Amino acid sequence: MNLLSINNLSEFQIAEIFDLTDKLKLHNYANVLNGKTFILFFPESSIRTRITFEKAIKDFGGECILFPPETLDKREQLRDVIQ
To answer: Which of 6, 42, 77, 80 is most buried, most CB within 10 Å of its CB?
Structure first.
């Protein structure tokens, strides 16, 4: 699943996300993201959000690639950059 907007999710899918977070809290899934890489784009003003995402991904065994904030200012469509 590629999540670009919560508006694209059904009520059922949103409920599934919250169910998954409950399961992750109750059980030790330290390596559930092992072998997964996440590309992160955050504006400079989102430092707390960025750090929260990076920490959570690393806590679950994943890797992060962080694009610099100025990357978001490029004329190229974000969808094209992500692909």
So the answer is: 42
